[in-house]
């Protein structure tokens, strides 16, 4: 059922895709592989358009666009094309004596018409990777990119809609993306399955046993990539008091060595004036240890480190989503863990330590979507790891085969043979039959 207040164009697109899915063409493995191959080629043919569009939104360099946007998409496409036949195959399982003679298997089937609503911060990556998972699973896809990255959204609409049957894969622009809870509530009315990736405040815990130099290097790269506009960016650091001074010096050293600037092609703009102003408000009444400079005309905010941050300050109450890194001190690891656990479960958590017992304690006692030990962000590059949140940070997961599973229903089948029919389950019942049933069980 489609809601009454949904625009007629969207209603038509949904109905058309339902009709197309009913032809069963999308269930063909060959069809899926050919469409994914086609998508790969279309993207390669239009790379310059993609680079130009995202540059208008973020002033993002070709290097970073390829590294963080196109390369993960090409890898996802290659993985899906190579494995879709295996992922789609039936999996045989044990049947048991109670159903002898028979076989049992699990058969993946596509869900049908799917909707992908993407965020603005990585407008190609976050739009196309879940769409690839859905197409690989045999579904049709309506893609709604974020209107905030308007140029990237427009070029996606152009290259997809000009090259794919809208009854199969179609981009719809415009409108405003509501928060995940509202999407989930609307879908629940019709028992529609939903996967949500919602973000949150992802902590980094740096213990006294960490390699401070390499920890600072990896954290700086992960935090200030895309000017901090990354859902799994380290949101704040909890640093052991004994190494705080050394760690802060290493952070500053790494930032200055990186020479973040638009001219060096290693930094991007804040996406729009609204987000720029929001980030400046977060800097009010804070202790700036390093950075803090900004330029409204270019939407530039310098990589910034905060210290002596009050837990009640707004910068610790909402996801930062920008180049601001609060560094908080702790003296007892239990304290640090308790603080993280007092907040909503984060999308990611990063642990920097060479002490295995400390690492295992943190991994055991903190619930989070995914993360890394002695690194940040890079767990997302492994397509064998599911990407998703838990609790307020999200629901479900995707990437690689995990994405295929998210957009599939696994149908359970028992296939019995004729010619032999045990009578134990049939009437008339008797104590003797019950004894035999108990013996079998």
UniProtKB/TrEMBL annotation:
Domain (Aldehyde dehydrogenase) ranges: 10-174, 175-413
PROSITE patterns on file: ALDEHYDE_DEHYDR_CYS, ALDEHYDE_DEHYDR_GLU
Oxidoreductase keyword on record: yes
Annotated Gene Ontology cellular component terms: cytoplasm
Gene Ontology BP term (one): aldehyde metabolic process
SUPFAM superfamilies, alphabetized: ALDH-like (SSF53720)
Active site (UniProt): 197, 231
Lineage top rank: taxon: Eukaryota
Keywords from the UniProt entry: Oxidoreductase
InterPro entries: Ald_DH/histidinol_DH (IPR016161), Ald_DH_C (IPR016163), Ald_DH_CS_CYS (IPR016160), Ald_DH_CS_GLU (IPR029510), Ald_DH_N (IPR016162), Aldehyde_DH_dom (IPR015590), Aldehyde_DH_NAD(P) (IPR012394)
Protein name: Aldehyde dehydrogenase
Organism: Potamilus streckersoni
């Amino acid at each position: 059922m489609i809601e009454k207040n949904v625009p007629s164009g969207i209603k038509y697109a949904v109905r058309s895709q339902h009709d197309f899915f009913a032809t069963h063409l999308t269930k063909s493995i060959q069809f899926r592989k050919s469409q994914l191959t086609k998508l790969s080629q279309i993207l390669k043919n239009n790379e310059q358009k993609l680079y130009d569009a995202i540059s208008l939104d973020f002033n993002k360099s070709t290097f970073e666009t390829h590294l963080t946007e196109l390369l993960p998409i090409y890898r996802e496409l290659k993985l899906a094309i190579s494995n879709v036949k295996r992922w789609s195959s039936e999996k045989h399982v044990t049947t048991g004596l109670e159903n002898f003679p028979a076989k049992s298997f699990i058969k993946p089937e596509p869900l049908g018409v799917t909707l992908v609503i993407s965020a603005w911060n990585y407008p190609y990556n976050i739009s196309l990777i879940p769409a690839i998972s859905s197409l690989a699973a045999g579904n049709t896809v309506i893609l709604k990119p974020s209107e905030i990255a308007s140029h990237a959204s427009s070029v996606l609409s152009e290259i997809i809609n000009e090259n794919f049957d809208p009854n199969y894969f179609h981009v719809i622009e415009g409108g405003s993306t509501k928060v995940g809870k509202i999407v989930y509530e609307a879908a629940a009315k019709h028992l529609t399955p939903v996967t949500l990736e919602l973000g949150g405040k992802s902590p980094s815990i740096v213990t006294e046993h960490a390699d401070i130099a390499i920890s600072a290097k990896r954290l700086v790269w992960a935090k200030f990539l895309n000017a901090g506009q990354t859902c799994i960016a380290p949101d704040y650091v909890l640093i052991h008091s004994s190494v705080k001074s050394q760690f802060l010096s290493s952070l500053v050293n790494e930032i200055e060595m990186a020479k973040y600037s638009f001219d060096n092609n290693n930094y991007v703009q804040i996406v729009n004036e609204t987000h720029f102003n929001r980030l400046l408000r977060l800097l009010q009444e804070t202790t700036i240890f390093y950075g803090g400079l900004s330029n409204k005309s270019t939407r530039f905010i310098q990589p910034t480190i905060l210290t002596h941050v009050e837990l009640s300050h707004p910068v610790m109450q909402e996801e930062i989503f920008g180049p601001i890194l609060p560094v908080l001190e702790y003296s007892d690891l239990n304290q640090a863990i308790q603080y993280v656990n007092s907040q909503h479960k984060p999308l990611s958590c990063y642990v920097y330590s060479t002490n295995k017992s400390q690492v295992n304690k943190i991994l055991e006692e903190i619930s989070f979507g995914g993360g890394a030990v002695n690194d940040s962000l890079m767990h997302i590059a492994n397509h064998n790891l599911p990407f998703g949140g838990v609790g307020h940070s999200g629901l479900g997961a995707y990437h690689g085969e995990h994405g295929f599973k998210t957009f599939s229903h696994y149908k359970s089948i028992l296939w019995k043979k004729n010619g032999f029919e045990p009578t134990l389950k049939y009437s008339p019942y008797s104590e003797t039959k019950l004894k035999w049933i108990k013996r079998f069980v």
